[in-house]
Amino acid sequence: MSLTDPLLEDASGSFPDQSWSEIKHENREVSVSSSASTAEPSPQDTAQFDPEDRGLEPKLANADALLIHSIDDKEVQAGNAPMPRALLSPLGSPQTTPGPWMEDGNLMTGAEATFTVVNFTMNVGLLTLPCLFAQHGWSTGVVMAFAGVACACTALFMQESLVALIRRGIPLPDYPDLAREAVGSRFAVLAHVVALVEIFGYVSANLIALANGLVATVPALSEPQAMLVSTSICVGFAAISDKQFAYCALISSSAMAAIFATVLLWGTELDTWAEPTTFLKDSSYVPASFAVVIFTAGAHPLLPCVMHSTRSRAEFRSAIRLSWTFFSLFAILSGGLAFYMYGHSLQPLITDNLGRNLELMKMPGGGAMRKTGGLWVLVKLFGSTVPSTRPPVVALGKQIGIRLPAGNGGFSSVLLTAPLLYATAVLSQIISPYIATFESVIGCVITSFNALLFPSLTYLVICQPKDIEHRICARFFLLLGALLPFATMLPRLLECF
């Protein structure tokens, strides 16, 4: 059994890919009581189901039975189910009108969810990964492959935990809900803060890079003016729903591919290629390089919003597998080809190699290539900033009582996104001289928590998997997430003594 195979059982012991007819045949139904707890169907309820009559809707006893969207696959017509009373009915009366988030047309397909998650993984951090080949040699490909498998496994763990909470009657669970159910309220606050810090770091780095790119493209703009213009454009993009923005994400991911294509195309202009043969060097810094890859590939704080905006659980699970498989293959192939051409002259930001030879001297005609690469970077950043703001926007909406439509978007999203993005822009201007140090801390500590430790811990506690392979896998990634910050900092500490 592969570690990325679908997890067979969730906390309630039911199988994840049952169709509606199979659930009805087995007399299973999920109910949400006024206390938001899971209840077993009574004999009277099960008597209402006729195994031979597969074309009829089940009768709901006391309006308490509920099949919640995203638990089961697309065969379930979730639009006909009553809305979770815990969401909009604080007094416990059943809500019989389906909410707009239950409409299938407002939710992403599997392909659209894949575009979205791929866009998260193919962020600007991908431009720094080829230099890891220059630091460690060809063995870096193994590190990247392992990081992709780790992120995919823990993302599947997180999905199972989220579904388990939905079965317990928690509608649209997110990071704090996972932490609260697994450990307690204090841990929920910690997990929420850690997730928001990572998202802030990602959005802040994007806004700083956007401002720098606009200044390079339009020299008449000052950096604060460029920051204001780029932030305002991103606020306008917030009106686009997740379903429609998935195609912007596809364009954004294609822009990243175009950046690497530009770098490789420039490599064909070099007189000679480096053709290095180094397989492994500086092994003591491999944990730090692994943390850098996890920082790039880990998008786990954003996954709950994507899951709740996807039509079915099976499509979201497929999106997870495809996204991190694509990330691993792209990172290994693009980084390996660049390493073969440029060798140990690869720069921390691969676009800095544009227009230069292996001795990093400027070459004739390189200016046009650098501008082309810069324009593609702008396209990439404009297409990836807004989706990463969705979790804090949703959290803010919950706090002030603004309910966003299915898949986000619209005027309410713009209204909530504007103060968050403008505040982030102001803070980004302040911390821009220290952004490298800030990202280093996020990569070493925070991302290992979000991408490895947290999903594994919550999966073990909430789902309590029965399969020994899943238990071993989750415990391994839990231990790895706990030890990675120390393994990353140890070589630097030893150098000080």
Automatic annotation (TrEMBL):
Keyword Transferase attached: no
A Pfam family per the record: Aa_trans
Record-annotated Amino acid transporter transmembrane domain positions: 112-484
A GO term, aspect molecular function: L-amino acid transmembrane transporter activity
Keyword Transmembrane: yes
Ranges that cross the membrane: 144-166, 187-212, 224-240, 247-266, 286-307, 319-342, 440-462, 474-494
Biased composition (Low complexity): 30-43
Protein's cellular compartments: Membrane
Membrane topology category: Multi-pass membrane protein
Keywords of the record: Membrane, Transmembrane, Transmembrane helix
GO cellular component annotations of the record: vacuolar membrane
Positions of the UniProt region annotated as Disordered: 1-55
Source taxon at top rank: Eukaryota
Name of the protein: Amino acid transporter transmembrane domain-containing protein
